[in-house]
Amino acid sequence: MIVEVIAVGTELLLGQTVNTNAAQIGSRLADAGLEHQYSTVVGDDHDRMVAAIRLALSRADALVITGGVGPTQDDITREAICSATQRELLFSEEYADRLRRWWAARGREMPDSNLKQAQYPAGADLLDNPKGTAPAIQLEHEGKLIFALPGVPAELEILLDQHVLPVLQDRSGEGVVLSRVIRTYGQSESLVAEILADVFERSGNPSMAFLASSGEIKIRLTAHAPTEEEAEALVAPFEAAVRERMGSLVFGIDDETIENIVLGLARNNEWTVATAESATGGMVASRITAVPGASKVFRGAIVAYHEDVKRMSLGVADALIEEHGVVSEPVAIAMADGAARALEADVAIAVTGSAGPETLEQAAGTMVIAVHTPERTMARTVRLPGDRERVRTYTTTGALHLARLAMTGEWWSGKPRSGRWV
Amino acid sequence: MIVEVIAVGTELLLGQTVNTNAAQIGSRLADAGLEHQYSTVVGDDHDRMVAAIRLALSRADALVITGGVGPTQDDITREAICSATQRELLFSEEYADRLRRWWAARGREMPDSNLKQAQYPAGADLLDNPKGTAPAIQLEHEGKLIFALPGVPAELEILLDQHVLPVLQDRSGEGVVLSRVIRTYGQSESLVAEILADVFERSGNPSMAFLASSGEIKIRLTAHAPTEEEAEALVAPFEAAVRERMGSLVFGIDDETIENIVLGLARNNEWTVATAESATGGMVASRITAVPGASKVFRGAIVAYHEDVKRMSLGVADALIEEHGVVSEPVAIAMADGAARALEADVAIAVTGSAGPETLEQAAGTMVIAVHTPERTMARTVRLPGDRERVRTYTTTGALHLARLAMTGEWWSGKPRSGRWV
User: Fold this and answer.
1) Helix axes B46-59, B77-85, angle to 10 degrees
2) Domain covering A176-253 in this structure, CATH number
3) Which of A48, A116, A306, B336 has its CA 20 to 30 A from that of B363?
């Protein structure tokens, strides 16, 4: 079954909102083994929405539309579906009552504009939205399914899981698509592709693709088969070949993030973790604490943005800063040791640097990362191109990867080191 | 001139990468006054890429394609352009030499796969990429312009600015599109729409749209006119009407983020700022330090994830934690006061709470924010729905808004308070 996605909203075309919904839907469709060939963004324009809906119906079996079902005047997805399928727009008294009760339960009177959400194309079902007032719409038109869902990510997500995907999977009765992502760090995309050139040559089902993302290179294998087991059997030898070639550059698969790996290493070693951050301003700590269960391992962080704080809270000696400068390996090492001491942690990750565009004594993009472990503390300096946000993001990723290599001892074990950071 | 955007990459359809490039291109096209009606994502599939390119050429004057121009085997945008326009794929010896020199300058030998990047459709120009090895391609086909750009965001950005937009603007010779976003915080989207219903009724040019984003509600006005001045004159009365109705709920316009506003207030008052964070794990500090120049004002942060750190680094009394629990207003106030003291800051923002799914004594989603200013320290408790990431993001936004209201004194000045947080 081929599913097409249309995201509605001029704010998406104007770039004021990033279309995270398309990624959300795409990943759920893939998990459900449903094929997804095109994803389109169209503005809040009636005629263009109608054209996009008609085109999608001509080339797919089902259509998921997000956005434009809210209570405001620019929400015209309902009208566009009616025009595209030549149906009347009806009004559900029953849903209107439900809306009034929803507002009453929250002790507020419903703004009249919300009644717009009780409108629906003739023949459609209104699906209850557990997280908001905009209902989802499900319509069967000439043998094809049309879903219209709210654009609010949390509402979209629950409606997809509870209504849309079960209905689509039930209809499709097809096989599965299995996607395995092998995550590596430490080499350029083109060198990874070269290392794997003959594996790529042999690929087909599974297909193979390379993807650079915030300094990591991902290798994606995607197999189609009648069952999960058969798809897994297709992927397995390719995964083994990739792992054999890439060796210790592989750090995880699928949604295993580097922060998950670092927390797992800490748990296995019964170590606690802390960070001391200057240029990354708490981004390393944010990434670690985004993982549920981080509280078992993570002690906390000291964001020492001002030099005084490096001295006061981390105990970095004045003389060290004067001699080497704030952006230096000795200062990064003192920050890591200081954080381990002040926050009573076994492992401490420290970052100092200049993310730009302001410059200290060093050029913008010069970043120093140090990692303290019970065994030793080591530091590395790197120069990163790009703007402030890119430098901060890449450094955050790099700091977590260095923490992994320090915690496993690979940093100083004499193993082959082909990465950029070690 | 109508420009259409096609992003190429199966990883986008599978949701493994969010299509931030489309937002980047969209916002630049809007700034340049170029119309943008559709944005499409298509996988690394030759036939579907050809279909998408042909469709775009049938309805737009120019086409910007991103992705699929790298060195790896799944990069087939060049081939797809050739098929869609029935042109031959040629090889540029000159660009191949340039690639070899690029690698040599970095002391490395070029992997052979990179030569793929010296291929181009007959009639196209290869444009130099200052940030990478994949060149941009510019092709005129039957009076329409086709650009193929790398998908790496930093490379895309510079090529857009240096090559693509100047060429498109020169060609268009049309008027401008002016977009003004008025940013508000503290009310629901439907109530904002209701407050502004009659302003919306009068809109047209400029058009008016509402947009909910991480707890903020944005109101976007978009005007078309021959000149910047005329567009501004169309927008001005609508902006004034929105500001008058929304009053103190308006906190900024366009790309004025709440972190920018907070840093501006600090600079104007000659105050320094710090944060003390538990559940947000450094996200408030990350948002603040993402702003260039934050170092003039921001002292640092203590991420007190473990209870011990709240005691040790922030001086929160044991008795307070025992009596009220970690997630409580007295503890949040002690954290804010403790951060102001420990980090020698005039203003301190503190967050404690349970983002879920782990639960402390309080239900997940219960968050307490306190703000210390030279005048006083106050706290608020809020219960937020959604998953860990949503709770953390909304709390970070809320904490910055509460900091703004504390720094201006609006929190306790007796002014009308219609927001959710105060």
Assistant:
1) 60
2) 3.30.70.2860
3) B336
